[in-house]
Amino acid sequence: MDRRDPDGEIARRALAYRNWGRWGEDDRLGTLNLIDDAGRAAAAALVRTGRAVSLAQSFDMDGPQRGWRRRTNPVHTMLDTGTDAERGLQGFPHGIGGADDVIAMPLQCSTQWDGLGHIFDRGSAWNGRRAGDVVTSDGDLVTGIEHTAAALVGRGVLLDVGRHLGSEPSAGAAAGELADGFAILPEHLDACAAAQGVEIRSGDILLVRTGQYARARREGWGEYAGGPAPGMSLTTAGWLHRHGIAAAATDTWGFEVRPNEFDVPAFQPLHQIAIPNLGLTLGEMWALDELAAACAEAGRWEFLLTAPTLPITGAVGSPVNPIAVL
Question: Which is an annotated Pfam family here (predicted)?
């Protein structure tokens, strides 16, 4: 990879791994098409103990956001409370009372999926559409996240690369964690899968644990949102394409390694290839530590994963509470 030429490196990979037209001109799902009913049935058969693990961080003010791109942490406000009920201020008959609340939050501020309208490549959105024809002030008119509401259920596979490569403490990272700036390469993914004895299959929802989330929860958020991080290398674009990954998520803010792998200005180049060219739905800020411990205890790294988006009409992303069932 030429670290001085992000434009060329992105363009070459975008063309090589582009899925435009693969599922028809009207496609709205991209690689989520690779999850079929037979795959979901097989994933359901992976449930043995019934243990369910939530992979979401808490949606509250104690979050990582620092205001970049107007992203804030969720703001939770009570509209009706028990105090109102005790004082008879709600106007209900025969002593009944209740509580109501509201939340205000950017859709990309916590555990979430990036939809296909979230990133563009040189003015083009997924499937070669003009970006301005897809996402307007009215929202994503074509690939809005509502179209994926029933799609993200299938075989989940966890590659605990942090555990596999970070067995010893390193600079700024404890055992089981990758240091900030560590780029996960295709050979790292292959070696981790081999060590865990798990096969990667077409239609899988791939989860990659780096250990950065554990570090942030232990030491404080710091620069977790947008700062240096371990993550997926640009060179994994071909690996994701070749293995037929349906969707992929990590325990980091931005999925890919930060700083990005160039000696000149670059910003999230893997996103630029994966979302508008591969049609790959990406997940970020997933809490994978409990799942990693459960998988290690059970000695298996595949499970039923249900991670549906909220059907928010025209949205380009969605918060999610993913559930892995072992």
Answer: Cyclase
The DSSP annotation for 69-91 comes to GG----EEEEEE-HHHHHTT-S-
Contact 286, 56 (CB under 8 A): yes
Q: What CATH topology corresponds to 6-69+106-325?
A: Glucose Oxidase; domain 1 (3.50.30)
From 149, 133, 65, select the one nearest 105 (Cα to Cα). Answer: 65
- How far is 45 from 279, CA to CA, in rounded Å? 28
The answer to whether 175 touches 166, Cβ cutoff 8 Å, is yes
**pLDDT digit string (tens) for 200-255?**
999 999 999 999 999 999 999 999 999 999 999 999 999 999 999 999 999 999 99
Can you give the residue ranges of every domain in the chain? Answer: 6-69+106-325, 75-103
Question: Is omega for the bond preceding 259 within 30 degrees of 0, making it cis?
Answer: yes
Of the candidates 319, 11, 316, the residue with the CA atom closest to the CA atom of residue 134: 316
Asked whether 31 and 274 are in contact (CB, 8 A), the reply is no
